Amino acid sequence: MKPVVRTLFAKILLWSVSVQLVTVGTILALVTFYLPEPQEAVDNAFKLYAATAVTLFERFGPEALDKFLARSGRNTLLRLKLSATDPGAKCGPRSNDTTSILARGRTGTYCLTVRARTGGLPDSPESHRSRLQITILLELVSCAALSFFLARYLSRPISELRRAAIRLAKGDLTARVGPRFARRRDEAADLVREFDQMADRVVALIEAQRRLIGDVSHEIKSPLARLNLALGLARRDAEQHAPRQFERMQREIDSISQLVGELLTLASLNAAPARPLDQNFDLGAAVADVVADIAYESPGRAPDLALARPAEALMVRGDRALLARAVANVVRNAVFYTQPGAAIEIACTAAGAGRVRVTILDHGPGVPDHALARLFDPFYRVDDARTRQTGGTGIGLAICRRAIELHDGRVEARNVAPHGLAVTIDLPRLAAVAEQFSTHLRDRFG
Question: Which residue among 92, 234, 262, 278 sits deepest, i.e. has the most Cβ atoms within 10 Å of its Cβ?
Fold first, then answer.
């Protein structure tokens, strides 16, 4: 059975409370078993007073006794009186504010009467027990409060570090922790600062990679256009001498042009959306247009494309062309990696909780499970799982993921039985977007 306590905060809190309770319990046990009862201690003190008073009276007379009793009364706020009794007699009974102690001397038997000047004598055992219970309760509350703040102090950097790591893993490059612990000087604060330094280095590398992709793409675009123009002129003058070679060169130039175009698109999406994401449109109609275009481009695969049209308009907000391109990249990927005759099912449905979902299900070979998490990374291809007859760029799915993220959506892939790959695109519905915007306005302006 797994332990219930799993968080670092709970563990520190539990151990701290346990240690303090054991310490307090040990002290109380020592006090209880090795120290006399309060009333017994008081009686012993009064007996000592009585024995001393009797000795002074018998040796030095009444004057010495009066000075002793007067001095003792001033020091203890008590009234003490020593009187002689008959042999064998007993002192008066104990009351709420008076007690009597019997003392025997060499010449007789005496009774020391003790009366408090204000209030009664020391507490009864019941009153002492009540005070002890209150003390224990206060100790428990103090232990719990001290343990709570100690556990929070020790575990808070780790909790903040975990939240920042999750944000960074999801693509939030602004995730930092250090400013909250700038004044702390311990190992946890050092770990937080090291994390921030690591995040800064990661962001710098990512930004350098993005700039490199954009710069290289821009630099290649111009000479590629000139090369394409030169090839067109050469084909016009000498294509009849080597038509196959010219056709091959044209295909390679087109392939490079497509790669450069996708690199520029990915670089622009990583920097900022090309156009404002403020269009309201029916996602189902946009998906239907995408399927129609792909069926027109690949008439041989048109019968394999099965579109399930939604029963209602599924309105979303964003860039219609950008979302259409994201869906098209996934559908084209499915067409590319499945054999003719294998169905490709496309569905656009309401997903509940103010979301809409586009599902593209192919019946191809699927991908290895370990490759699913990297399927949408730039330039990543799974050649062992999917037969690649001609060169793909490996950027289409990366563009898809970035476009969906810009619309506050999610995209994921999973294998389906017995074979095939399902890609799910999840987006916020327009009604939910409007409700969130209205809530924001109410919170901001009342």
Answer: 262
Encode pLDDT of 257-302 as tens digits.
777 777 777 767 766 555 567 788 899 899 999 999 999 988 889 8
Q: Give the total residue count for the chain.
A: 446
What tokens appear for 257 in the block? 């042009």
Query: Is the whole model's pTM more than 0.90, yes or no?
Result: no
Q: Vertex 211, ends 209 and 215: CA angle to 5°?
A: 120
**For 99-112, how does the pLDDT look when each residue is reduced to its tens digit (9 = 90+)?**
777 777 777 787 87
Tokens standing for residue 242? 């080597």
